[in-house]
Amino acid sequence: xxxxxxxxxxxRDGGYCxxxxxxxxxxxxxxxxxxxxxxxIIECGFLMDQVLYHPDVTRxxxxxxxxxxxxxxxxxxxxxxxxxxxxxxYDFDCLPPQSDTPIQGIRVAFHKKxxxxxxxxxRTVRDKGYKVFVQPMVTAGYTDREFLELIARVNALEPYAxxxxxxxxxxxxxxxxxxxxxxxxxxxxxxxxxxxxxNNLQLAFANAQALAELHSRRxxxxxxxIYGMGRGAGNLNTELFARYLNDQAGxxxxxxxxxxxxxxxxxGFYRQNPWGYTAAYYLTASHQAHPDYGSYLERQETLSxxxxxxxxxxxxxxxxxxxxxxxxxxLVHACRREREGRAL
Length: 344
Prior knowledge:
The protein has about 350 residues and is of the alpha/beta class. The protein has helices at about 10-15, 15-20, 25-35, 115-125, 145-155, 175-185, 205-210, 240-250, 255-270, 280-285, 290-300, 305-315, 325-344, and strands at about 5-10, 40-45, 60, 80-85, 105-110, 130-135, 160-165, 190-195, 220-225. It starts with a strand and ends with a helix.
């Protein structure tokens, strides 16, 4: 049976909840606390072009900047530190050699239309000495044939990990397990399988357990964040999954540091801008639509769940995968006009 590791993405995915403005002190608390808890992989934030670096913000323009938030004592058992770069938002040719930076891995996220260029970028990252995590967003959007073709190209790349990404939180267990089997049986030996769940249908924890209970021979990486901190409905909770692995899979995570981070850092952000399951995020998942549509509908405040359902049903399928403000705004206005007409 392979190992199961946690990759905590609080500082990156959680950044959707606070515009990545964690504060330098909180960034250091989070990396140190996760390291004390025994979390194996810590994602430190975004690598991005065309932003101004600020030490309080987890959007970095160069990996060297990440060194300021890492714990001072680096031992052999210290976590793997990584950052995520969205293809098209970072110039990988400008990436310094890994030996010159404090992080060991780069996660490359990309949309289906961009995968040939994204895999070329992954090769550049690998050739510069980094562990490469290949992250095809909206995995459910690939047909089986497309997915198998992607896996074949990934095999030639030999990355550190290849991911199943449930971008919209829509994967039911049977489809997740079917997709996992496609990867497990076709991915080259030695490549880890990652899983990035979202909680729109409250399936993140259940799906993570389902993969753990497969007892795959593959090494598995599961993404999570403290208190599920993340855009919209949020992510799998690190503290929940760590406890589950301790109880059911021989994990040795120390929960007290995670609870301290929850109390001392994350709950403060939650009170300012809550995340988690709501009717709007459930409905966006049901319609296979980007979660930002749910955020927009929630801000309208006066819409009923049935009205939100109708609005999302009216979205052009070509507009569902990426948030289009003009499309959703037009549908909301039409819904309100219809409501006013019924009231006359």
